[in-house]
Amino acid sequence: MITKYDDVMRRAAELALRGPRTGENPQVGCILLDESGTIVAEGWHRGAGTPHAEVDALSKVDSAKGLTAVVTLEPCNHTGRTGPCSEALIAAGVARVVYSLDDPGVAARGGAQKLTDAGIDVVPHILPGVGENLVHRWLTANRLGRPWVTAKWGSTLDGRVAATDGTSQWITSSESRSFIHHLRAQHDTIAVGSGTVLADNPSLTARTANGDLFPFQPLPVVIGAREIPSGSSLWSHPRGVLHETGPLDEILARLFDIGVRSLFLEGGPSLLNSFIREGLVDEYIVCIAPMLLGGTRTSTGDLGIDTLTQARKLSIVETQHLGGDIVVTAREAH
Ligand code: AOF
Ligand code: ZN
Prior knowledge:
The protein has 334 residues and is of the alpha/beta class.
């Protein structure tokens, strides 16, 4: 169904993207309309502890009496780090609240009911796919009680990640690598196996093409029993480094408990394999280079799958051409 709020909701979703994709809170956008449907204020959420999108938009008008608020997420109904948006909207005197996605949070939900009880006209579920898509990672992480996991690798067209002698720099194009650095900066954490730290001495920073650090750096997490050597580049990472051992699901649950909502998994192959085997990967980013290597160094090993009916079925959500490579983004359906 097409409604008169669709375009404004799309604009609200664009505003939401101005906020950080990382951290504990969802990206939310809010627009205030006057009676003629003209935009009078735009707001968005800038991350946990800062004003919510609705409060940000309300702060930009002298009076919100009679206005319509268009929000990507149902206004919250709880006092967390900030006060309830439902009450802020009621106190400001808005006439109508239009939103896309219901807030699934046990504490936060109920804003729509509170607004309705206060006599405000509430229009829910406008372009629900837009609101859902915006916070898909946040919804998944909260539902599963573990961070959203994006696994990335670069391989040849025949699925090899290194030559037989182990050489692997560089299979993918510089454009693909620069895309990967942007992706790193969109995750709370970046994980590698302890063997990879020994083999590659990675710095795990998110950098521009000329080596400058992005403003946001994900926290490096090393997983596995081997010690991080004293000479490791990770010791000079601006965020420090976390070293975790034990079952992967327990590590992820611990990370969730300290506020981690997304993890970028960079390898190596055995850690990647374990994550996939245990069904702990939500999204795959695979950079495929126009090259053939043959040999035994394949992107994944034994996934515990014996027959085709047990295959992990994914859906491709995006494909891009980057500097001669094809970059495929695929998701697990869960
Ligand atoms: C909204 N507008 O812009 C956001 C909402 O601890 P707090 O106060 O920051 O609250 C975080 C929760 O509030 C979060 O889990 C989600 O349910 C909701 N986020 N709600 O009305 C916003 N960011
Ligand atoms: Zn709120």
